[in-house]
Write a structure and sequence with these properties.
The two termini are about 25 Å apart. This protein has helices at about 5-10, 25-30, 35-45, 65-75, 75-95, 135-145, 145-155, 160-165, 170-185, 220-225, 230-245, and strands at about 50-55, 60, 95-105, 105-115, 185-190, 195-205, 210-220. It folds into two domains: about 5-65, Orthogonal Bundle (Arc Repressor Mutant, subunit A), CATH 1.10.10; about 75-245, GAF domain (Beta-Lactamase), CATH 3.30.450. The chain is globular, with a radius of gyration of 20 Å. By secondary structure, it is of the alpha+beta class. The protein has a five-stranded antiparallel β-sheet, with helices on both faces. Strands 1-2 form a two-stranded antiparallel ribbon. Strand 5 (about 185-190) and strand 6 form a beta hairpin.
């Protein structure tokens, strides 16, 4: 991606639940763009449907994003292969099944959830970025990254990594992730949300590339009574079915 494209898309990252509306001059000041450049980027995003003008000089995210989300739900190969397997897994276990992916940023998001445990409320859902160095899905996704991209992430997020107990050095960080990869899963209780436990495993395609994670999630009072061997066997069976479809 060219530097100009990167700068255009950086504008979209500014729009959050806490700040859903922006003015072009505010965007330019925040991102350090010149006035002509910033206004041109905003115009391009409006023309692409990624932003919409809601009043004079005020912009919000556009409808094209909703259209793309619909297209993704209909055509994403990983999602298509995973949904029927996740429905069966949640029905058989009584736990929620959650599919998560890593994308550039880096960011981790859940892209699908099948509810299995009645009344379980999760803080994170489809499309809401999760903490990058906390709980199962992010750690498993990182554990299956190649050394080069992983080193870049470490260099850019040293303080956050240390604050989350993932190591004060590259060697410590790499060692923790290597252990997760050798184990084949990561199990957590209360890391992401109090009273909630989970086990996450990688979803591997036929080339053994990690294309996501699948997790069983439940209230700590229930899932903590299950052995790791039992949860892993269930998840391993499910991900093998997904991988075969891919």
């Amino acid at each position: 991606m060219s530097s100009s494209s990167t700068k255009v898309f950086a504008i979209l990252d500014l729009f959050t639940g806490e700040r859903p509306v922006w003015q072009p001059d505010e965007i330019n000041e925040t991102l350090g763009y010149t006035r002509p450049t910033g206004y041109r980027y905003v115009k391009e995003l409006v023309e692409a449907g990624m932003l919409q003008k809601i009043s004079a000089g005020r912009y919000a995210l556009g409808g094209r994003i909703i259209e793309l989300d619909f297209q993704l739900r209909q055509t994403d190969p990983v999602l298509s292969a995973s949904v029927p397997v996740m429905k069966d897994l949640a029905a058989r276990t009584g736990y929620d099944a959650v599919l998560s992916v890593l994308y550039a940023g880096p960011k981790v998001i859940d892209i699908h959830r099948v509810s299995g445990e009645k009344g379980l409320e999760l803080l994170y859902g489809r499309g809401r970025p999760r903490p990058m160095f906390r709980a199962g899905a992010p750690k498993v996704l990182l554990a299956w990254l190649a050394r080069g991209p992983l080193l870049k992430i470490f260099e850019a997020h040293k303080e956050e990594i240390a604050a989350n107990g993932m190591g004060d050095s590259w060697a410590q960080f790499r060692a923790k992730l290597t252990h997760i990869r050798q184990t084949g899963y990561y199990r957590s209780t209360g890391e992401l949300q109090a009273g909630v436990g989970a086990m996450a495993v990688p979803v591997l395609n036929r080339e053994q590339d990690c294309v996501g994670t699948l997790a069983l999630v439940g209230s700590s009072s229930r899932i903590d009574t299950e052995s790791s061997e039992t949860l892993y066997a269930l998840l391993r069976e499910a991900t093998l079915l997904i991988g075969t479809s891919l």
